[in-house]
Design a protein that fits this description.
The protein is of the alpha+beta class. It folds into 2 domains: 23-36 and 137-249, Elongation Factor Tu (Ef-tu), domain 3; 44-127. 20% of the residues lie in helices and 42% in strands. The chain has 6 helices and 16 strands. A 6-stranded antiparallel beta barrel has the order 1-12-15-14-13-16. The longest helix is centred in the N-terminal third of the chain and has 18 residues, at 2-19.
Length: 250
């Protein structure tokens, strides 16, 4: 009976050696960053105009239909026209006893005005930008700087484990991320040192952008801030115990 048990145990061990797989991971440092989705509102008019009046200021909120500027075209136009590529439309207001044929440019998108790109009295050509706007709340993501030996094991869509070393609360410090972009140009050791405030690494580092797999909840948004240091754990190899043992014997 003991012999049978020993044989079964030995068989299970052999099966495990040739089938059980383990993963090797390497670590890379990085930091928390934010994306600010932006759009441009441009002139939808098919002709040149001059800017008569600007109705918005930096920091104003925009909603679809809000007037941005009054302009005077250099030729007659339809009463209204919509341009999807410009994120705007125009219409000609009905003003009695007015010789000036001005039209109003209004937004078709919502957001916050970041920059006003024209001034009153300036010329405006078709599709020329009027304002830039932030169209959504900033989104948190991670920028990782990894050596070429690690980058070679990654592709867009790869999963990465992220921990934020600046957060003491363990339930808020760990994240799962997915690679969205891998730089093809490496940063020099001195550039990495200057960016992260660490001693120069032994070789170049490649920038990897990683988005959280799920949006940050309220508690995570409370503690996660741009510039915080992060540590990424990246799987570089997966092998069986048998392959590891055989390599060790070589």
């Amino acid at each position: 009976m003991a012999a049978v048990s020993f044989a079964i145990s030995s068989l299970l061990i052999v099966v495990a050696i040739f089938n059980v797989r383990y993963s090797q991971y390497e670590r890379a440092v990085g930091y928390v960053a934010e994306r600010h989705p932006k759009s441009i509102v441009a002139s939808p008019l098919p002709t040149n105009t001059s800017v008569n009046e600007i109705f918005v200021q930096q920091g104003d909120s925009l909603i679809p239909g809000k007037a941005i500027a009054s302009v005077v075209p250099d030729k007659d136009l339809p009463k209204n026209q919509f341009s999807a590529n410009a994120n705007s439309f125009f219409f000609a207001p009905q003003v009695k006893d007015s010789a000036e044929k001005s039209v109003i440019i209004s937004s078709t998108v919502a957001g916050r005005v970041d920059n006003i790109l024209v001034r009153e009295g300036a010329s405006l050509s078709p599709m020329q930008p009027l304002v830039t706007i932030s169209t959504a709340e900033p989104r948190t993501y991670f920028q990782i700087l990894a050596p070429g030996s690690v980058v070679s094991h990654l592709e867009v869509g790869s999963d990465i484990s992220i921990s934020i070393s600046d957060i003491n609360e363990s339930d808020l410090a760990g994240y799962r991320g997915v690679v969205t972009r891998i730089s093809h140009v490496g940063m020099s050791p001195m550039e990495v040192s200057s960016l992260l405030g660490i001693p120069p690494p032994p070789g170049p580092r490649y920038l990897i952008e990683v988005d959280p797999k799920t949006a940050l909840n309220v508690e995570q948004q409370r503690v996660v801030r741009p510039g915080m240091s992060v540590l990424a754990s990246i799987k570089t190899r997966e092998r069986t115990l048998a392959s590891w043992i055989l390599n060790k014997k070589e």
